Structures are given as structure tokens and as C-alpha cells.
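Final report, closing paragraph on structural work. Over the funding period we assembled a curated collection of sequence-structure pairs, and we close with a single example.
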Amino acid sequence: MPEPPPRLPSLVRSRLRHLCPEADHMSSHPSLVNAPAPFRVRAPEKGWAPEAPTGPPTYDPTNPQSGRALVEYHLHQLGLGEVRLTRDSGHGYRVARHVPPDGLGVCRARVLTEAAWPRGAELCVLVDWSPDPAVRREHNLSTLPDGAEEHWSDRIAATVDALGSLGYTVEPSRFRCSPRYYPSAELLVYRLFPSGAAVRRATAQPSWALSRPVPPNYAEPCWVYPDRPPSSMVEDVLREAGFPLSDAGGDCGWGSVTVCNITQTVWPPEADRCAWLTWRPAARYCCAGSGELLDGAQEHWQASLARLTQAVQDAGLYCRTRERIWGPPDGVAHFLVYRASAPLTETGRRDTHR
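Its predicted structure, as stored:
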């Protein structure tokens, strides 16, 4: 008789039993990657068959989509992602549809700007979890279906444990975690460089500036005057400093900026407002995909980003970005710009990564 596969720790097994009945016999990371996905989907209609991925994608740190694809693959292996069903069209090609797991809700990975990655992370994505249709809240109703909150708490905990068994660090959103506020939950999923583990543990229990979600959500559908969206606050500062918004036209010598609101899941703990800023170089210094470093491009990047960060600091705001310095090969530079609930010390400015 062949030896049975190694068993997962008891806590993880108990969580995974919620996800699929086969989980008790699943092995840990190396074996699981090569095992068939433990699908539990609603019985497909006649002619439709599940299509499993052929193998794990290769992660390329320079390609953000590859990190999303890898996490999507593992979600599929765990039975937490959408199942791709295909059938013959009858006209010489195949058609496809996606079906969520039965009773578990469904997870989808999304690309996240490097400016919002935790310190020490080599890969990071946002995972969006949507509840099972049977316990979803209708947008036009104020009441929750029976069992909705228990479904959310059980499924989020089980998803954390399942992804954790594959070596990921998983942090459920402090704010986007309740059906009373949002239609879906978010989880920050990342993998640390070995040298980053100690840094992450040092800031694992932050003191949060806010105790409730900001708009828009079910309780507060929009910002109410005099409060404004974080993006508007940052746009005012940058206009004053001479940085045109990307839709303003023309070619400013300092480049242009785009400011968007970003999920509260990735706000620094001390922030009471936060926006995602993307800076683009002036048109004459854009590499246009050629990869060729244009004359003066490096100096343009250095001078413009220094002016941008100084303008933010002069307005009493703070910048957070990736640890590697942005440069012409990146094409654009990303920052989180935020307002802290209290002034930060010099050490706090350096350690604002979550």
C-alpha cells in the first residue's frame, strides 16, 4: 500500500473542510500545486466541462500581471476561484463560461500598485471575495439575508488559512470585511522576501487612525460637504505646485499627474485620507516603449519627483512608495499620498509602509 500524503495542520484542515470535502486529504504546498483542483461547483449543464490550468504561471517581478495570475492559479487549485467551463460550439470552436464555487463565495485576484505593497514584499495582490449569491445583500434593501454575517466571517477565515497554507501572508481588510458596509470583502495577499519578515513583524500591530469605513459604502453612499474625496484634496495641492492633471492638455516641464481614490484596505494605518498618485514624465522624455534612455530623461525624473514630493510635504501631507527608486525604464511613478491624523516623527515618515 502506498503511504498516504502528508496532512495539513489540524487548524488549516478544519478551515479547509468549509471549502471542500476533499481538503482533509490534500497535502501541503508542493503536492497541492500539482494536484487536481478540488472543485465543488454547481452541476454544469449538459455539454459543459471544467477546464483546469495546465500548470502554475511563472512569476516575473517586472510584470504585475504575473503575480495576479499566480495567485489566481492557487485560488483555482484551492477551489476558491471561478471554474472555467468549456463546450463545443458546434461551429468548429469552443466557448467558455465561468462558474463560482457552490456555497463558498468566489475569490478574484487584482493587481495592486507597488506603492501600496507592504515593506519586504516580493509579490502582492488584492484578493476580492464575493459572497455566495444565496446570502448576498440586495443593493436596494437595508436588511441582510439570514446567515450573511456568519457566512462572511467563516469564509474570510477559511480563505486566510487556505492561502496561508501555500506560503502567503494574508491580511483581511480592517474595513472592507462586513456585509453591513460593502458587497464584497478584500484581503491583502503577499509573499515576503526572506529578509523582509522581521520588518513586517515589527509593524504588524499598528494603531489605526480611523475606526470605520470612509465613503462610499452602504452607510454613507457619497462624501458630504464639507468633506471631500481624498483625490480632490491631493489634486488641489498638485495644481498649486504647477503639476497639471493628465487630462489638462499641453506639455508641462514637470510632467503630469493622475490622482485616484484607492481602497481603504491599503491605507497606511495613521492615514485619515489617502489617494493614489501616478506621475508621468513630460512627453519629450517618454521612452514610448523603445527602452532607449533619452538625453536628459534621468535628470527630468529626479528633478520632477523631488519637486512633487516636496510640494506634498509642504502641504502637510505624506508620500509612501516602493523601496526601489523610480526611473525612466518604469515609464511612470506611483505614490500613495495621505494625510495623517497626527504629525509623524522622522522615524514614522520612514516607516509608513504597513
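The radius of gyration is 23 Å. The first strand starts at residue 49 and ends at 51. We thank the funder for supporting this effort.
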